[in-house]
């Protein structure tokens, strides 16, 4: 059970504590924030409503701890991360339970998220050693007009304090995807967990605490974004912001100033199915890529653009496979579980009703009970329908029948979102040409969009984000280059 046994120190009566200065604390506000279970629609957990003063103290502690951590040998930083990963994996069951209760993630997927997070931490430790152990040596006579009397030694140094803001759908994995690269690079971290998903993240932080990192190096501040959000994102002590979420990221980017940003803000991932595609493969990937975790993934299939000549057969295959999807509670490992909130469910319903009013064809009956929405394939979608463009973040996929490949590419490129896309064809030449024409951060060939493996580059164009993620890119992004130039009294040439 969450907050018991190994995790008992993070709970105060029925409210989970926040983490700062290497300790679990109760906020001086005396207030808490409730977390509603998407399945029961009742308050499942409570977390501290931290104050602005507590945010300031956490940042100050992080600044002090970072100076010490930056002087810690790289191999010792890696050792600490490996301890963190091992402890996380050993204590995964309580975290998985919290994921089930607060974001309705199927239990098997919740366990997978925790184990995957441990693997990500360990890989970050090793990749950090590979990247940060090497510098660059330059000599001056490689540039015209110079002799060899200057040596430049360039190396990577930490940015300082990284503000990490993960989303509700992967509150553990997308937290450690920011924390681990930041720490191996010598940074401190202030974590602002999502409200929905905060308890899972706090359990993860306790594993970090037990791994023995310096006090103040990592903090986890819970509370209402409306009260502490602007302070955190505009704080002069924050040197980098890594954010995964929605439109809030655009507002953050406008306020952040001269701070490096790493942002992933959603997608309307287009699945383009050509006439020569393996339709069985495409249908299987639509089911896996569009309906897993009820479509609440930035890389879920969000729209299918299929050539008219094969549309009927593809749709028939998808509809048949949809009958095998189980719908129910996350504790039962159902494929389709409740979406995260009533507001999300209402938004999805609004998109569906708009499509219905404008003449779309429904292959299943619309059905909703509370936050639980039955999977739906909406056919004959036209550009005037909201669902053709907006991200539902639910188990609802629109199908647009196209006459030419160019029509599908245009639909992909006309959207403000540009995170990922995919193309199904047996012709590798077509696949490459279409991939080049689709303006998205990643194009998958003959597979559904996906984030991962976690060391692959992951980025979006346009409103889908800034910068690139993935372990290697995150480490690079959370460091900067410092040069030391040695000026010799005269030109010097080895063996000269």
Automatic annotation (TrEMBL):
Keywords: Cytoplasm, NADP, Oxidoreductase
Single GO MF descriptor: glyceraldehyde-3-phosphate dehydrogenase (NADP+) (non-phosphorylating) activity
Organism of origin: Physcomitrium patens (Spreading-leaved earth moss)
PANTHER family assigned: ALDEHYDE DEHYDROGENASE
Enzyme class: oxidoreductase
Subcellular location per the Swiss-Prot or TrEMBL entry: Cytoplasm
Enzyme Commission code(s) on record: 1.2.1.9
Domain of life, per lineage: Eukaryota
Domain Aldehyde dehydrogenase residue range list: 27-483
Protein name: NADP-dependent glyceraldehyde-3-phosphate dehydrogenase
InterPro entries listed in its UniProt record: Ald_DH/histidinol_DH, Ald_DH_C, Ald_DH_CS_CYS, Ald_DH_N, Aldehyde_DH_dom, ALDH-related_metabolic_enz
The reaction(s) this protein catalyses: D-glyceraldehyde 3-phosphate + NADP(+) + H2O = (2R)-3-phosphoglycerate + NADPH + 2 H(+)
Primary residence: cytoplasm
Gene that encodes the chain: LOC112276110
Any one annotated GO CC term: cytoplasm
Protein family according to the UniProt entry: Belongs to the aldehyde dehydrogenase family.
């Amino acid at each position: 059970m969450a907050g018991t046994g190994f995790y008992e120190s993070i709970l105060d009566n029925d409210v989970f504590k926040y983490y700062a200065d290497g300790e679990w604390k109760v906020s001086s506000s005396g207030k808490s924030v409730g977390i509603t279970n998407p399945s029961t629609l009742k308050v499942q957990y409570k977390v501290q409503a931290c104050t602005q003063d507590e945010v300031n103290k956490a940042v100050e502690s992080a600044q002090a701890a970072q100076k010490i951590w930056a002087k810690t040998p790289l191999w010792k930083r890696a050792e600490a991360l490996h301890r963190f990963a091992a402890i996380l994996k050993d204590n995964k069951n309580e975290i998985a339970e919290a994921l089930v209760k607060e974001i309705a993630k199927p239990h098997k997927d919740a366990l997978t998220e925790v184990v995957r997070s441990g693997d990500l931490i360990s890989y970050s430790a090793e990749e950090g050693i590979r990247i940060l152990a090497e510098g660059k040596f330059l000599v001056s006579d490689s540039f015209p007009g110079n002799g060899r009397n200057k040596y430049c030694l360039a190396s990577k140094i930490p940015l300082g304090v990284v503000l990490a803001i993960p989303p509700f759908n992967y509150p553990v994995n997308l937290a450690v995807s920011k924390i681990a690269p930041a720490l191996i690079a010598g940074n401190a971290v202030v974590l602002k967990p999502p409200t929905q998903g905060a308890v899972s993240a706090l359990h993860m932080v306790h594993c970090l605490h037990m791994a023995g990192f310096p006090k103040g190096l990592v903090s986890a501040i819970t509370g209402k974004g409306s009260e502490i959000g602007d302070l955190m994102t505009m704080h002069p002590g924050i040197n980098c912001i890594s954010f995964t979420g929605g439109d809030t990221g655009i507002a953050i980017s406008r306020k952040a100033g001269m701070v490096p940003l790493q942002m992933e803000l959603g997608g309307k991932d287009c699945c383009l199915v050509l006439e020569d595609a393996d339709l069985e493969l495409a249908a299987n990937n639509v089911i896996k890529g569009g309906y897993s975790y009820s479509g609440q993934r930035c890389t879920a299939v969000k729209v299918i653009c299929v050539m008219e000549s094969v549309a009927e057969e593809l749709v028939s295959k998808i509809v048949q496979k949809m009958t095998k999807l189980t719908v129910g509670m996350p504790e039962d490992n159902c494929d389709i579980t409740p979406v995260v909130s009533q507001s999300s469910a209402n938004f999805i319903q609004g998109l569906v009703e708009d499509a219905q009013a404008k003449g779309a064809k429904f292959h299943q009956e619309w059905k909703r009970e509370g936050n639980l929405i039955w999977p739906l394939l909406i056919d004959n979608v036209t550009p005037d329908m909201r669902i053709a463009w907006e991200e539902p973040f639910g188990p609802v996929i629109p199908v647009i029948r196209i006459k030419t490949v160019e029509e599908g590419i245009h639909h992909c490129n006309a959207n403000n979102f540009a995170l990922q896309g995919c193309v199904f064809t047996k012709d590798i030449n077509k696949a490459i040409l279409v991939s080049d024409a689709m303006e998205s951060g990643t194009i998958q060939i003959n597979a559904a969009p996906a984030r991962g493996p976690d060391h692959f580059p992951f980025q979006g164009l346009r409103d889908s984000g800034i910068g690139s993620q993935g372990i290697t890119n995150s480490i690079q992004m959370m460091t900067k280059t410092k040069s030391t130039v040695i000026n010799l009294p005269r030109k010097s040439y080895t063996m000269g």
